[in-house]
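Lab manual, section 2.4: Encoding a predicted structure.

Procedure: take the sequence of the chain (184 residues), apply the prediction step described in section 2.3, and record the output as structure tokens. A sample record is shown.
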Amino acid sequence: MRDLRPLFLPTEFNATLSEPRREPGRTILDDEAPRVGGAEAELSIGRDLPPIARLGSRPADKARGSDVLMAADNAPGLVGIGRTAGKVAAFAGRSGFVEIVAAWTGQTVLAEALPKELGPPGNKAWEPMELFAAVDASGLVAPLVVIEGSRVDEVDAHFRRTLEQRYRVGERLPPGFYRIVIGP
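Recorded output:
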């Protein structure tokens, strides 16, 4: 900490410094005194907060340090600084979400939730999958091609068949090439 030897190449400013010497039995830290300034017996958390803020169930000026970690009645800890308890609505049941993107422009052509009846078979967990579609004026040119599978073969086969036969993706899209992403 108090080593005066140069850290870089010698210059006219630091090359003339003598080698620092210590007396036997002394260390560099002997000259250092601990500084305990600003220590408080109890940490006052509410000192810098506005008077309307509450920590847990107490006003900010009467709060203890542990009140920061605990909230009353599952409410947010700092109510009064823009945080309030909010209700989160549950998602409606769905079997998946399909997003179709035009390959030549990158714009989303269609994005919607699939109805429950088009859901995958079984209860196996599956990952989002990606398919490729070529469409002309009469519909799909060829069967859908799986680019990235869902890691479950039955789900891959189900969605290929469902998008072609029941969802009729070839009839919904104008001619072109499309990237189809299906996620849970």
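Check your result against the sample. Residues 42-88 form one domain.
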